């Protein structure tokens, strides 16, 4: 299906006629030719056309991708499931299949680093090349406006970063993340990334730096972010326990139960594992 044919299908599915969509910047003739494959629209006119059928560009892109996630995010879900299951051999098989492709441009190299980071998170004896760590750090710091891609990449590779690089890039995230926070999916990904930074710092006993990231996380949430609110409560209770301000772990267990009730048993399991590490 061509781009124009997809547009026509979406327009008609929304009960809109060509005259409903056309305007000063886009004529009925231009739209008709576009839908019939006789011509293409320039990028700016395509954005106008998408907006005119009351869709976001991300929604249109999702339809264009056959209502599936991008290959990178599909791989990310696969890695996450294997990691939660503790399946090191499964992760190594993913790496083996990926390395069969000899095309190693910037993004393929970053994807490989993503995969080996998942292996390292389960097996710290697995060797990660120093130049891969440097390549990852330099790439992330070179990006002035972080999109969902950088958020997921950073979140997935924290385990291989040094304490200094984790804090350095975490601060870079805080400074370069504001442009897309009005997008719900980006905001959700950013909140999860800050949560992962704080958890990583607690695991590494870098408690001093957690306050900065918790403050940034707290500034992003509102009444709609119940999942993040519960998580933030867990983190605050955990820090109070680790600092010796309380010896009661029941509040953390109650937060974990709330995460289960909110429909995320995978994250609840991870929190249980974190809690057991913290109270040893």
TrEMBL record:
Coiled coil: none
Xref: InterPro entries: Cro/C1-type_HTH, HTH-type_regulator_Rgg, Lambda_DNA-bd_dom_sf, Transcription_activator_Rgg_C
Domain of life (superkingdom): Bacteria
CDD domains reported for this sequence: HTH_XRE (cd00093)
GO MF annotation terms: DNA binding
SUPFAM superfamilies xrefs: lambda repressor-like DNA-binding domains (SSF47413)
All copies of domain HTH cro/C1-type, residue ranges: 8-60
NCBIfam families reported for this sequence: RGG_Cterm (TIGR01716)
Protein name from the UniProt record: Rgg/GadR/MutR family transcriptional regulator
